Amino acid sequence: MLFITQLIYIKQGQEAIFQQFENIAIPIIAKYNGRLLLRVRPDESTIIEQSIDTPY
Fold it and tell me: For the residues 5-33, what does the mean pLDDT come to?
């Protein structure tokens, strides 16, 4: 089994475009026998320690 982890960074002001992408891309995952196992949008209160920018 293959697991892919993706960290996504959105340019400020482009959140709506990314939402459009997700609305198209997420349903397609199953078409190719994939599964979206977890979709998380962290905020400052959920981060304990980090050495990279917080993804979207």
Answer: 92
